[in-house]
Amino acid sequence: MTEETLLALDSYIQKHYAQEDRVLKNILTHSNEAGLDPIQLSPTQAKMLHLLVKIQGAKRILEVGSLGGYSGTWLARALPQDGKLITLEINPDAARVARSNFEQAGLSDRVEVIEGDAIQTMKGLLKQEPFDFVFIDADKTLYPEYYEFAMRLVHPGSLIVLDNVVQQGKILDPSLKESRNRKVRELNAFIGLDPRVEAIMVPTFTSKGLDGFLVVRVK
Ligand code: DHB
Ligand code: MG
């Protein structure tokens, strides 16, 4: 099987199951015009998260890493009217673009963008109600910290989903010493043995290449 076939398959899935409407296309345009890195989820990946939120019946979602609000829009659209997405972003430019994108998506009532260091913000969230769903998609070198903090912000039955746990297959190679590869490789192994959860890695091949989600259910 060739890469071309896998890409064609992702396009096929997008066409039949994950079409972007005008709002989502505009979000990408605005993000691009603002100079944000085009590293948001693919539509097919985002639709998977959207469905997981609905299957979960989640009412409170925490996202670590807003970027321009693309994944956040797919997540927030899966919430009921009285649901809430809190999304954390350290880059002020990205936070501003995300806020404006949520506004234009008509989601401002359901979404709060909190700018700043995610771990510090998560400390402040300890006094709020727990989250039903956490999506981790920020600095790969801090994934172990995000994961441990997420574990303090959830309840039994919550889902934690981590993006970029395959990294074009780089996590398979222990000789790669770069922190963003190594930390994720080590965390993948750790979560596989973590008695607090049940989990599975879900590889994805999209226009962004080979990557994957780690889907974690808290016992
Ligand atoms: C990068 C980060 C991401 O979250 C992603 O999905 C793809 C790439 C990056 O930092 O390169
Ligand atoms: Mg990502």
UniProtKB/TrEMBL annotation:
<keyword id="KW-0808">Transferase</keyword>
<keyword id="KW-0489">Methyltransferase</keyword>
<dbReference type="InterPro" id="IPR029063">
    <property type="entry name" value="SAM-dependent_MTases_sf"/>
</dbReference>
<dbReference type="InterPro" id="IPR050362">
    <property type="entry name" value="Cation-dep_OMT"/>
</dbReference>
<keyword id="KW-0949">S-adenosyl-L-methionine</keyword>
<protein>
    <submittedName>
        <fullName>O-methyltransferase</fullName>
    </submittedName>
</protein>
<dbReference type="InterPro" id="IPR002935">
    <property type="entry name" value="SAM_O-MeTrfase"/>
</dbReference>
<dbReference type="Pfam" id="PF01596">
    <property type="entry name" value="Methyltransf_3"/>
</dbReference>
